[in-house]
Design goal:
The chain is mainly beta. The strands form two sheets. Strands 5-7-3-1-9 form a five-stranded mixed β-sheet, with no helix packed on it. The protein is elongated and about 45 Å long. The termini are far apart.
């Protein structure tokens, strides 16, 4: 059904810029983080794809261990919700890198729900340490 709507031009293809705010759908993307080379506090970014909107947008998320483990390599609320306020473009989710080793380690932040709106890029990847 979605394919038919795409072909008919009723639903724009993913990433298409066929509209101008505020007529664009509300889409939230998880933004990949930099390579962390020191133990410190950081923020993950959840960003509106089409710029600011006129209403608050609630975004639910969760952190997922990879080779980096919660409580050993990084620390964050395992899950939660942030609000992208009306007129804003993004919201920040705090986390802390606890230790950096020569071995590269990764964890992710996953968007689990957007209200009102939809999930765009669902997963952001964060890398701790490693040789570059």
């Amino acid at each position: 059904m979605v394919l038919l709507l795409l072909l008919l031009g009723i639903v724009p293809a993913h990433g298409a810029a066929d509209c101008e705010p505020p007529d664009c759908p509300v889409v939230v993307d998880a933004i990949d983080g930099p390579v962390h080379e020191s133990a410190d506090s950081y923020t993950a970014v959840l960003k509106l794809r089409n710029g600011p909107v006129q209403q608050n947008v609630d975004v639910a998320y969760r952190f997922v261990d990879g080779t980096a483990k919660q409580g050993e390599d990084y620390q964050a609320a395992p899950s939660g919700k942030v609000t992208i306020k009306a007129g804003q473009k993004q919201a920040a989710v705090p986390y802390k890198v606890l230790r950096v080793t020569e071995q590269e380690k990764k964890f992710t932040l996953e968007i689990t729900a957007v209200q009102p709106g939809q999930i765009g890029k669902r997963v952001a990847v964060f890398t701790i340490g490693g040789k570059r």
